[in-house]
Design a protein that fits this description.
Blueprint (H helix, E strand, L loop, with lengths): L15 E6 L3 H16 L3 E2 L11 E6 L4 H20 L4 E6 H6 L1 H6 L5 E3 L7 H11 L3 E3 L13 E2 L5 E5 L1 E2 L10 H5 L3 E2 L2 H13 L4 E5 L19 H9 L7 E5 L8 H9 L6 E3 L7 H7 L5 H14 L4 E8 L6 H14 L3 E6 L17 H24 L5 E7 L6 H4 L2 E5 L4 E4 L15 E5 L2 E2 L4 E3 L5 E3 L2 H8 L4 E2 L29
Parallel strand pairs: 1-2, 1-3, 3-4, 4-5, 5-6, 8-11, 11-12, 13-14, 14-15, 18-21
Antiparallel strand pairs: 7-23, 9-10, 16-17, 16-19, 17-18, 19-22, 20-21
């Protein structure tokens, strides 16, 4: 009688991770890189519907721009403390700008945190987690300078149809309210060929839209562009994106008015897949306040750029950032901000009440504006901007709008039986996915054309039948639950020598979409 074979032990289940991201698009993209390095190290993402407490690893990728970022992080860490006590094997990591700033403060306030890492060592997270587990104590590693460009790390992308592509990290500006330069360091640019290679890789996986990311995209390539040509490296990069087959939409954020050139505006207008959308921070309409902020432009310069953009692209949508209540801001200063908002006709404005950030020059300035005054001005600004936004969105009624269908942007979509998408100019549109033009069903990642029927301050509604529907590879991937991945590439900083040649765009001027 032969002995029965010994049972084979089932493989241990992979440990799961959940990432919670606070802050800007840079942080969102960094979280994709964090997910990429964790997956490469053998971790698996926790199911999206699971509570964060159930994950074996919880990563907080933090922001330090506003005061409530600190309160939000420590509140979330506090809620995890009982779970951590009940599950000692669970690990908690804190990274990003707040970790770079606070360092040991995080583990002092939340001693149950296992790893603290900074903005310059995203790729170190798996090793730090293993070291924390082996040593039985928190690991704090904060690099002072960039050693590996984040885009050289693998990434697990959040979207099947839209991707972030960093063209630079860091910032050379010295705005008195901003702590970002001290946390992310001096600006370092990627080579154009490397940026375009990443864009092409995303498009090959079905991505239809990319957003080029930088703290100041207009300053891109100053160390290697050919000034004698009369063109800027960033404008050349936009034109080169126009030559990538299958890339339907190109956006970018954020430009600085100081470095904005006519060359970039011309490239936007002449490159068909560059969207007629511009997000350009204003911060204040008062020249006196702009000077105190060390913003190296004045209101007239800003409005001149707006006028040039509208002349080249009459239907372009402009969005901005504005700070209310900067130290020393008077009622006359605030009136200047309202004036510039009226003249600029922004489709949307991200408005913030000033809060002092330790480590910034503005935090120690005299004449801090009382909270009640800041609140009252903020409410007036929001009311004015809502008027501007409503007027702009009502202009979309009756127009045909081409939408890249998105997911998670319509909070009432389930109740209203609508879906949502972004027009080429970035406006949010809720639409009814019905009509004879619909091919089987509309999916996130597909492209539809609809007609606007109603304008509200924050969105447009299109309740008629879909006019056209195009199924896409991105829609297939979204429906299948697959996402693009960016593999690890050669390590090290990008070289800053002569640029690689960019393909020449042959796109001619096209009329602005009727959006």
């Amino acid at each position: 009688m032969t002995a029965s074979p010994s049972p084979v032990a089932a493989p241990a289940p992979a440990r799961t991770f959940a990432i919670r991201t606070h802050g800007c698009q840079m942080n969102v993209h960094d979280s994709e890189r964090l997910a990429g390095v964790l997956v490469e190290a053998g971790w698996e993402p926790a199911p999206p519907d699971d509570d964060v407490e159930s994950a074996d690893l919880v990563v907080f990728n933090t922001c330090a721009v506003r005061e409530n970022a600190d309160n939000k992080l420590y509140g979330q860490l506090g809620r995890l403390a009982p779970t951590k006590a009940a599950r000692p094997d669970q690990q908690i990591a804190v990274g990003g700008c707040l970790a770079q700033k606070d360092r040991e403060v995080v583990t002092r306030k939340a001693p149950w945190v296992d790893v603290v890492f900074g903005t310059h060592n995203v790729g170190s997270l798996p090793a730090l987690l293993e070291r924390a587990r082996h040593n039985g104590e928190a690991q704090v590693e904060i690099l002072e300078a960039l050693e590996t460009f984040p885009s050289h790390l693998p990434a697990r992308r959040d979207s099947a149809y839209s991707g972030w592509v960093s063209i630079s990290v860091g910032c050379n500006n010295t705005c008195t309210f901003c702590i970002v330069p001290s946390l992310r360091g001096k600006e370092v640019d990627r080579r154009p060929g490397e940026v375009l290679g990443e864009v092409e890789a995303l498009v090959a996986e079905g991505v239809l839209e990319v957003t080029l990311l930088g703290q100041n995209v207009n300053a891109y390539g100053v160390d290697f562009e050919d000034r004698s040509s009369g063109r800027t490296a960033f404008a050349d990069l936009l034109r080169a994106c126009g030559g990538i087959d299958g890339l339907e939409r190109v956006r970018f954020t954020s430009p600085h008015p100081r470095d904005f050139t006519s060359d970039v505006i011309t490239a936007m207008a002449e490159t068909p897949n560059v969207c007629p959308q511009l997000h350009m921070p204003l911060q204040s309409g008062s020249d006196r306040v702009l000077r105190a902020m060390r913003r190296s432009y004045r209101a007239k310069r800003y409005l001149d750029i707006v006028a040039e953009v509208r002349e080249a692209m009459p239907d372009a949508a402009l969005t901005t950032d504005i700070i209310v209540g900067f130290p020393g801001e008077t009622e006359a200063d605030f009136a200047e901000t309202l004036r510039v908002v009226r003249e600029s006709r922004f489709s949307q404005a991200f408005t913030f009440q000033y809060s002092p950030r330790p480590g910034t020059p503005a935090a120690t300035l005299p004449d801090q504006v009382p909270k009640a005054v800041v609140q009252e001005r903020y409410e007036r600004l929001v009311a004015l901007q809502e008027e501007m936004s409503l007027a702009g969105n009502r202009e979309q009624v009756g127009r045909e709008l081409e939408l890249l269908v998105s997911t998670g942007e319509g909070r009432k979509d389930a109740a209203t039986r609508r879906m949502s998408g972004r027009a080429r100019d970035g406006r949010l549109v809720h639409f009814t996915p019905t009509g004879p033009a619909v091919d089987r069903e509309v999916r996130p990642g597909d492209v539809v054309t609809v007609r606007g029927t109603y304008g509200a301050p924050h969105h447009v509604v299109a309740d008629g039948d879909v006019l056209t529907h195009r199924r896409t590879q991105a829609g297939d991937a979204q429906a299948a639950g697959t996402r693009p991945t960016t593999p690890r590439v050669a390590l090290g900083l990008p070289s800053l020598g002569a640029p690689e040649p960019l393909p020449v765009s042959t796109g001619c001027t096209v009329g602005s979409p009727s959006v």
